[in-house]
Amino acid sequence: MKISVIGSGVIGLTTAIALQEAGHEVHIFTKDLPEATVSAVAAAIWMPFHVEPLELVNRWSRVSYDVFEKMSEDTSSGVSMVNLLTLANSPDVPDWVDAMPAGRFWKAAASDLPAGYQHGFFARVPMIETPIYLPFLQKKFLENGGELTVCEVKSLAKMAMTPDWLINCTGLAAGKLTGDKAVFPIRGQILKVDPMPGLPYLADDDGPNALAYIFPRKDCTVLGGTAQLPLGGLSNDDESPNEEDSVGILRRCQNLLPALATAVVRSVAVGLRPGRTTIRLEREPATNIVHNYGHGGGGYTVSWGCAFEVVEQLRV
Ligand SMILES: Cc1cc2nc3c(=O)[nH]c(=O)nc-3n(C[C@H](O)[C@H](O)[C@H](O)COP(=O)(O)OP(=O)(O)OC[C@H]3O[C@@H](n4cnc5c(N)ncnc54)[C@H](O)[C@@H]3O)c2cc1C
């Protein structure tokens, strides 16, 4: 079938490739090229974060885990398997453990923990270096015979008149495009410092330094972050870097890892995660439109599971 995908962030590209691999002819229409999307701002690590509903997210995350693990065998993909130390306030294991294969999650010893922490876990997870991974996906899509056109789609209904199916992967913009009031931004700011050899992968998302994460990559070390949700009905959708946020991120990351005291900030980036009460992955009744948006802070984590689910939706 001839299928149009709107959007070339991680969700659009992954969905497009899954559709091609199922035998379809796919054309992507996108306002921005992959390198200018929210997806390009992410670090990114496999871990569900501000994304619902739990049961489906865990199922889709598990599917993606397996795909990423296989991809990590190809060094050109930008995917590798790393040991992430997640710091916690309590010994309770996080919900996303259910989405991991057995034996990939273990309790950290007291000697592994930074000062001030009593609990932590190691998780063996995929790390996705976005400046490598997004071009890798784009290349794969084009090599599979896909076409990509840069344009802004104003009406899904009009756009859906030509192809057999239209897949909406417009992230945060889907809110306006479809009139969906359940979509909201979750503002994320990160710092990039020079790569430093031997740094561990660390995250604190509910402990005394939350939110803090340190993700070493080849091009830089990513220090995060913020997850600013709408407050009192007001969204923070400011895409410009905020100095106060930067100071806070650096301080919290240095608390976790004092070796970062000498780190020099090379750049600051902001992305608005496409938050939604739950991911919208469904066929719109009586149309040829399938929606795949609202992946919050876990778009990479669930990307392959959601893409295969779209393929399934077209079969029924
Ligand atoms: C700081 C930060 C850190 C993150 N870390 C992680 C992480 O560690 N792990 C993880 O899994 N996730 C992480 N995320 C979340 C992840 O980045 C998002 O969930 C994901 O990028 C969403 O992808 P998307 O393709 O839906 O949206 P986007 O990347 O925003 O792509 C949307 C696409 O739709 C196109 N578009 C929009 N409107 C139109 C239109 N009208 N016409 C045509 N095209 C249109 C855009 O041009 C773009 O190509 C992070 C996000 C941020 C900001």
Task: Describe this protein's structure.
It is built from seven helices and 14 strands. With 316 residues, it is α/β, with parallel strands linked by helices. It has a single domain (2-313), classed as 3-Layer(bba) Sandwich (FAD/NAD(P)-binding domain). The chain has an eight-stranded mixed beta sheet with strand order 4-5-3-9-10-11-8-12. Strands 6-2-1-7-14-13 form a six-stranded mixed beta sheet. A hairpin with a 7-residue loop joins strand 9 (201-204) and strand 10. Helix 1 packs parallel to helix 3 and helix 2 (54-71) packs across helix 7. The two termini are 14 Å apart. The model has no long low-confidence stretch (mean pLDDT 97). The structure holds flavin-adenine dinucleotide (FAD). The site of flavin-adenine dinucleotide has 41 residues, from helix 1, strand 2, strand 8, strand 12 and helix 7.
